[in-house]
């Protein structure tokens, strides 16, 4: 109960922080507070306002994908990744690993397409 009270107070401070969504920079009709490092990873940062963002629904949904290729659309992405690097290096590597996996997959697809293109070209 004490932690819930601290979280509520911290969320209230975050909601008072700006008149816009910190993910898009736009004014929204309603706002939500999102944890940069999810509570599922640690409760130690649950009431830390540095671990919270004021988001509109769309930005919150993007962040909650935990996919850097979607999260990077948010204007706070770089600052949040720096915060994650500073506070939870393991989570940072997990997110970066997702980017590297996707990059490797995309490179392999590109190589396969080039090989297929040249095989077709050689036959004609």
Give the topology, please.
Elements: H1 2-15, E1 32-35, E2 52-55, H2 57-64, H3 68-71, H4 77-87, H5 89-123
Helix pairs in contact: 4-5
First-last Cα distance: 73 Å
Tell me the radius of gyration: 20 Å
Flag low-confidence runs: none
Q: Which sequence of strands runs across the widest sheet?
A: 1-2
Please report which band the strand proportion falls in: under 5%, 5-15%, 15-25%, 25-35%, 35-45% or over 45%: 5-15%
The sequence of SSEs as H and E is HEEHHHH
**Percentage of residues assigned to helices:** 55-70%
By secondary-structure content and strand pairing, the structural class works out as mainly alpha
- Average per-residue pLDDT, rounded, comes to 89
The geometry reads as elongated
Number of helical stretches of at least 4 residues: 5
Total DSSP E strands: 2
Main sheet summary: 2 strands, antiparallel
């Amino acid at each position: 109960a004490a932690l819930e009270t601290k979280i509520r107070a911290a969320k209230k401070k975050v909601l008072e922080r700006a008149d816009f969504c910190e993910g898009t920079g736009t004014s929204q009709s309603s706002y939500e507070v999102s944890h940069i490092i999810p509570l599922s990873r640690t409760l130690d940062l649950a009431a830390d306002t540095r671990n919270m963002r004021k988001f509109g629904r769309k930005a919150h949904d993007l962040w909650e994908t935990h996919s850097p290729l979607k999260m990077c659309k948010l204007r706070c992405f770089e600052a949040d990744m720096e915060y994650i690097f500073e506070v939870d290096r393991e989570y940072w590597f997990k997110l970066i690993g997702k980017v590297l996996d996707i990059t490797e997959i995309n490179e392999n697809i590109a190589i396969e397409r080039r090989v297929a293109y040249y095989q077709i070209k050689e036959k004609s």
